Amino acid sequence: MDRIVxxxxxxxxxxxxxxxxxxxxxxxxxxxxxEPHRPYDxxxxxxxxxxxxxxxxxxxxxxxxxxxxxxxxxxxLRPGVLETDGGPLEYDGLVLATGAAPVRxxxxxxxxxxxxxxxxxxxxxxxxxGARLAVVGAGxxxxxxxxxxxxxxxxxxxxxxxxxxxxxxxxxEIGGHTVPWYAQAGIDLRLGTAVxxxxxxGLELAGGEFLPADAVVVGVGVRxxxxxxxxxxxxxxxxxxxxxxxxxxxxxxPAGSGGTGYxxxxxxxxxxxxxxxxxxYERRMRVEHWECAQESPRVAAATLLRSLxxxxxxAESADVYNPVPYFWSQQFGRMIQFAGLPGxxxxxxxxxxxTAVAPAGAKRAxxxxxxxxxxxxxLVALVTxxxxxxxxxxxxxxxxxxxxxxxxxxxxxxxxxxxxxxPA
Length: 424
Ligand SMILES: Cc1cc2nc3c(=O)[nH]c(=O)nc-3n(C[C@H](O)[C@H](O)[C@H](O)COP(=O)(O)OP(=O)(O)OC[C@H]3O[C@@H](n4cnc5c(N)ncnc54)[C@H](O)[C@@H]3O)c2cc1C
Known about the structure:
The chain is of the alpha/beta class. The protein has 3 domains: 3-102 and 222-308, FAD/NAD(P)-binding domain (3-Layer(bba) Sandwich); 117-218, 3-Layer(bba) Sandwich (FAD/NAD(P)-binding domain), CATH 3.50.50; 333-418, Enolase-like, domain 1 (2-Layer Sandwich). 20% of the residues lie in helices and 26% in strands. It contains 8 helices and 25 strands. β24 and β25 (379-385) form a beta hairpin. The longest helix has 19 residues, at 290-308. It is globular, with a radius of gyration of 23 Å. The chain starts with a strand and ends in a 15-residue tail after the last helix. Bound molecules: flavin-adenine dinucleotide.
C-alpha cells in the first residue's frame, strides 16, 4: 500500500490530506507537524484571538483517516525517506507544507513574534490597559497587532524602518494613506526608524535612543521554513522550487545526496513554503497568503496522485497552479483587500478619496480603492479599503486581463462590475 507523508500541520498540510482523500487516494497518509496542535487557522490570531473573541481556531478539516504525528519535526530528506526527530519515515509520495517562520532581529532571545496560536494567547495576556507595547514593523501583522492593542487601552508605539506602512506590499503612496489611521487610534508611529537591538525591556533604536516597553512584538516578515531541506538535493531558493504543477525540482544536490533520485512528481510543495512557476506572470512566485495555502493543495494532490499511478505529473492537460495572488487584512476598523501583481512600470489610479474624513454622524470615512495599470492598459493589481464589491469585480477583471476605461475606473460611483466585461 502506498504511503504519502505530509510535512507541516498548517492550513496547507491539512488541506493536502483532505484533497488526497477527495481525489481518491486510499493508501496511508501520515501528517508530521512540529506544533502540538491539529491544523488551525492563522488569520484570526491577529484579529479574533488577540481581541478575545475566540480562543480556538482549529480548522474543520476531515483528518480522521490520516495518522497525525504532532509535536514531531522533520529534520532531513532523501528519496523515499523523511528523517524526523522521532525517527525515519518511508514514503512513496511527499507533500512539503512547512510554511514560514518569523524573521528574528538581533538581541533578546525571548523576543515575541505572532505566528502560532501559543504566540497569540501569550501576547493577549500582555495587552492590558496602560501597558506599553512596542511593535517593530508596520506591515500587515504589525498593523493588526497595533489595532487590537490600542483598542485594549495599551500605549502602542510602532517602529518602522521604511518611509511608510505596508511599503513592501502596497508601495509608498498607498501605504502613506494609512499613516493617519495610526494617529487616529492613538498610536505613536515612527517611520524611517531602524531598530539596533531588541531588549527584554524595550527597543534600542539605531540612533541610540532607548524605547522602553513592557512587551515587544517583532513583525518584520517571515522566511519559508526550508532550512531542514538544505542537503535534500531538492532545489531551494527562498522556498521549495516547484513547477507549475507544484512538483519539486531536483537540483544537482550535494555529492551523494541523490538529488536526481526523486521520482518526478513524487515530492510536491504547497502554501507559504512553495516557490512555484507562474504561467500567468512568467516568473517564479512565492506568497504568504491564506488563499494559496487553501487552494494549492488541490493541484499538488492531483500531481502527486498522477505520479503514484505511473502517469505524467507535468501533463499539459492537467490543471496548473496559476492564481492571481489575493490577500486581506483587517486593521483600524477597515477591511483592506489586495489582489494582483503590480509591475515596476505600472501606473497607480485612485478610485475615491483616501484623505476623505468621516461625514457627520458616521464612524468611518468612506472607502476607496486603487488600481495599478500596465502600460498596455491592463488592470494588473487592485487594492480596496472598505469597498468589498470593488474587489469582487476586480478579481474577475484581473483573472481575465481586462483593460477598463481609466476615467470610469477612477469614478467610485461607476460600479466596477460594469467595467469587468471589457477585454484587453
Ligand atoms: C497572525 C497571522 C495573520 C494572518 N492573516 C492573514 C490574512 O488576514 N490574510 C491572508 O491572506 N493571510 C494571512 N496570514 C497568512 C496565512 O495564515 C498563511 O499564508 C498560511 O497560514 C500559510 O499556511 P501554510 O500551511 O503554508 O503554513 P503554516 O501555517 O506556517 O504551517 C506550517 C506548519 O508546518 C510546521 N513545520 C515547520 N517546519 C516543520 C518541520 N521541519 N517539520 C514538521 N512541521 C514543520 C509549522 O510548525 C507549522 O505548523 C496570516 C498569518 C499570520 C501568522
